[in-house]
Amino acid sequence: MEPNLVDVLLRITLAFVLSLSFGLERQITKKPVGFGVFTLVATGSCLLSIIALVFSGGSSPLPLLGGIITGIGFLGAGAIIRYQEKAFGFTSAACIWSFAALGVSIGVGFFEAALLFYLFVIVVILLDRFLERKSLGNYSKTVTLVFDSIDGLKAVKERFLIDYREVSIDYNMDGKEFTFTFMFTGHRRRLDELVNKLAGMEGIKNLRVG
User: Domain end: 87, 112, 133, which one?
Assistant: First the structure.
């Protein structure tokens, strides 16, 4: 049964609200994928699913729906960071794919299944945050340091960061500020210890963990 205009608006709004609430949490906790990606993926998938239902002409819309999920898979792959023969960001990539599935479910009218699935996603994310706080298992964070001189950057790298390779290094045009970003992998306790040591170093103007 093709949805009427009211149904279409309600479905898109539901997909928007659920994905926006989830995306804002990821944005606040400084995850690599912000609220815009989840919102656009879910609402876009919802709209495309509705279009697939309307224009399937009584035939199966599954080929179009399958194309949506496949296409979103490539977007999710872009959230995976490869560094020193390791890969990070699988949770973010899986969330992107999951919200495409959420949007499709809402678009075709499976509201109960979509809400249950959304609850499962929230449970997984909350468990992930709980385990992270308890330092159970390894996790990855990018650490960004801002220095006021290149000498300070060299000193910190030689003293503390010899086992880490930079993800990026930038400097402003007048040469008075240097930004160094590296990837940390390990227990949270080790990261806290490293951050505490770095916070007491001279020459570091700013320190961010994301």
Answer: 133
Query: Cβ contacts of residue 109 below 8 Å, gap of 6+?
Result: 3, 7, 11
189 and 148 both lie in a single domain: yes
Weakest-pLDDT range from 42-51, 101-110, 182-191, 199-208? 182-191
This prediction has a pTM of: 0.63
- CA-wise closest residue to 207 among 135, 140, 197, 165: 197
DSSP E strand boundaries for 14-72: none
Beta strands per DSSP E along the chain:
81-83, 86-88, 139-147, 166-171, 178-186, 204-209
At residue 24, the pLDDT reads 87
Distances (CA, A) of 77 to 54, 64, 80, 89, 92: 30, 21, 6, 9, 9
